[in-house]
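Next up, a chain.

===
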Amino acid sequence: MMPPDPNTTLERCQYGWEFQFKDIPYPTVVTDRGWVCEYAGNVPTAQTIFFVGSLLGTLFFGWLADRFGRVPALVGSNLIACIGGVATVFTNGFWDFAFCRFLVGLSLDSGFMIMYIMVLEYVGIRHRTWVANGSLAIYFGVSSMLMPWVAIAIGDWQKFALLTSLPMLITLGVPFVIPESTRWLASKDKGDKAVKIFKRIAKVNGNKVPGHVMNNFLQSLRQPKTSDESIAALFNSRELLKTMIAAIVAYMSATMVFDGLVRLSEHLGLDFFLIFTLSSATEIPALLTLAFVLDRWGRRVLACGPIVLAGILNVAAAFLAKGVLQVVLTLVARFFVNMSLSALVQWVTEILPTPVRATGSSILHVSGFFGGMFSPFVVYAGLYWTPFPLLLFGILAFIACAMSLLLPETMGLPLPQTITEGERLIQEKSLFRRNPDPTTAVYNEESTNEKIVL
């Protein structure tokens, strides 16, 4: 059949469209509202607006968590996402839909990141790793695997939006159940409130905080701060700034590989829902593995080692024909990238001092969003040279490893409470540290103010 003449006059479809529900076996917002042909641009535009919301929301709620507390930021981010998700169902056009997706995007990362930070700030050194990674493996990993099949079972995008949005209202009960971070309270000179929370937790646990421990804590609060504890200190401190730049490059590179492998898997010939499930399934073993070995092998080994293996697998898969073997290699590579990213997230959270922990973590996650924005273009470049995406992902993996080597090891160490402690941690625990003699180290468990471990 010959193609039509290029000069043929185009006319609008007079009777609407009929869609084949083959890849997605249920109505979507695209099919319901006819966002095809001259309206096809609505889809990427809405996605872009969503990610713009993610960028702004991550920075805003990170600042809010450091300025007004972890609990208000956690509740606020989830409520905005709930409002945006529910309101999406009642939209009629494009711009009201896009605005609602912008609201949901505001809370994309903050909804769980702030809770993650609170867990790390409350849990003691010995239990920090398995609590943080084990909970993510169970709740995030399992829910991600179930999500596509729940969508198929419901068979309606509006009902699916309600199902995934309304449960966020549960966060209204957070202030009555989860206490504010005592580390944050201490950093804001609110020691009296921190003491009340300590006593409350001790009562619930059937324990009593020893008097000398409480006295040490109160004495540490009375000590004058020797450095700026505002967010500006993150940029004014040479040590913290260099460390953050290295962490951002590492996280952005690893995120491009992580996101790119998901997008690339859609072009490897398997069912979309199956690929999403298998990719999500890599979360569980990756996080559970970290929970058991991160405190044995260290952050540096488990951030660098897996990402190097992922790079090797990507380079090897680049020169294979499309098929099962290439899919297997990319899924295994994603498992290793997942492990490295999770280790890196916990690692950087442990490096950042309490006054800037939420904001610094937000900046890190925003860099990941930027990395994810570039990955579709890398995948698209594969149309011109098939091996290019996987080869570039391999190179990015090696870059992430190199940057991670510049970060200080935090295994077995308490979280730095002040900017000064954060700088000392970087100086003494980096691979290329200034002070190679461990007997002269001043940042250790005994020298910090972490006297109460919950």
User: Anything to note?
Assistant: Confidence is low (pLDDT under 50) at residues 436-440, 445-454. The CA atoms of residues 29 and 325 lie 35 Å apart. The chain has 20 helices and no strands. Residues 125-154 form the longest helix (30 residues).
